[in-house]
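Students often ask why inverse folding is considered easier than folding. One informal answer: many sequences map to the same fold, so there is more than one right answer. In these notes we will look at a single instance of the problem. The structure comes first.
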């Protein structure tokens, strides 16, 4: 690993339990090309914000937590980690050299020519499929899902382990026929190890207000437990959960 490559980060979670297997050091990288209506980290989207840090500094910090993360690992999240491929590649090389499991939590929204070196270096990809319907994906995130689906296809080709993540948003993705379409689409992928259905929540709403950005999902309620169970059943009956 080259220790002097610089990147911009938003924050660090040193005992993360939500982004990959086990206890993990989660690095939230700064900058994201998407504009998800439900984004809970809108302050991580501007690539010019956050703070600059070197790969050497990040790895030194990671290693102070080694006793806690040795059975878990390190997750690069964001923002969008694929937006800083050189920084991400060096960090993933550093994790490999230190025999730490690595994961990349991504929307896969970048072209494969840019993202492939990062995908190749990670042990696990947490791929956030925003919407299987492309028109809906544009409405929800401001961008097409074509790079995301190409990323999944690439992971299948090289048999890179993938956890699919999908946010259940009432009025958008939380709709039985859309969920059935997504589940049917995912059925043929043998690289998928897990599917996580994540209920939409409003914990980031105050950040939108602080940034003086209109939060368009103000009136959208989080899914009920029954909604989530119904969504899970769509995947369970296909043997996907
Ligand atoms: S991909 Fe993540 S960080 Fe980027 S806008 Fe969507 S929710 Fe926010």
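Output (designed amino acids):
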């Amino acid at each position: 690993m080259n220790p002097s490559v610089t990147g911009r980060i938003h924050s660090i979670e040193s005992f993360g339990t939500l982004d990959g297997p086990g206890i993990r050091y989660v690095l939230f990288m700064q900058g994201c090309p998407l504009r998800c209506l439900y984004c809970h980290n809108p302050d991580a989207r501007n690539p010019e914000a956050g703070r600059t840090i070197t790969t050497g500094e990040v790895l030194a910090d990671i290693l102070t937590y080694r006793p806690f993360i040795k059975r878990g690992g390190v997750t690069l999240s964001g923002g969008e980690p694929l937006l800083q491929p050189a920084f991400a590649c060096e960090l993933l090389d550093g994790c490999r050299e230190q025999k730490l499991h690595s994961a990349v939590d991504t929307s896969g929204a970048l072209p494969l020519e840019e993202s492939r070196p990062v995908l190749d270096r990670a042990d696990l990809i947490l791929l956030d499929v925003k919407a299987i319907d492309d028109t809906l994906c544009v409405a929800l995130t401001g961008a097409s899902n074509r790079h995301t689906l190409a990323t999944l296809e690439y992971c299948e080709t090289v048999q890179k382990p993938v956890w699919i993540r999908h946010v259940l948003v009432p009025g958008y993705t939380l709709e039985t026929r859309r969920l059935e379409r997504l589940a049917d689409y995912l059925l043929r992928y043998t690289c998928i190890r897990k599917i996580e259905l994540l209920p939409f929540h409003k914990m980031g709403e105050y950040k939108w207000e602080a940034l003086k950005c209109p939060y368009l999902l103000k009136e959208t309620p989080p899914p009920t437990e029954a909604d989530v169970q119904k969504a899970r059943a769509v995947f369970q009956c296909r043997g996907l959960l």
